[in-house]
Amino acid sequence: MKGLLQPGPGRWRAVARVVALVSLLALGVLYTNHVQRQSERKWCALLTILTGGPPATTDRGQVIAAELVELRDNFRCPPGRN
């Protein structure tokens, strides 16, 4: 019986399986990164709108506005319209 280290059809099948597995893993990582960036862009659009309005007038509103600005900064979004 031939081992995987010796040339033959079994070796090439094993190599093809490894290459296919690595390719699928790479595609999965690329797709996940794409979806994550797309999601972050949507959040940035919302956070930019929410932080770009007039300043809050109540204490609670100011706390919420500060949290939204911090969240926007964590996403590295552009600053809101002030």
What order do the helices and strands come in, and which of them pair?
Elements: H1 9-51, H2 59-74
Key phrases:
mainly alpha, 82 residues
Short overview:
The protein is an all-alpha fold and 82 residues long.
Describe the model:
This protein has 82 residues and is mostly helical. It has helices at 9-51, 59-74. The protein has one domain (9-74). Helix content is 72%, strand content 0%. Helix 1 (9-51) runs antiparallel to helix 2. The model has no long low-confidence stretch (mean pLDDT 87).
Approximate strand percentage: under 5%
Number of helices: 2
Distance, first to last CA: 75 Å
Low-confidence stretches: none
Q: Mind summarizing the main beta sheet?
A: none
In helices, the fraction of residues equals over 70%
The secondary structure category is mainly alpha
Average pLDDT figure: 87
Record field, number of beta strands: 0
Supply the number of structural domains.
1
The arrangement of helices and strands along the chain is HH
Q: What Rg do the Cα atoms give?
A: 25 Å
Label the overall shape: rod-shaped
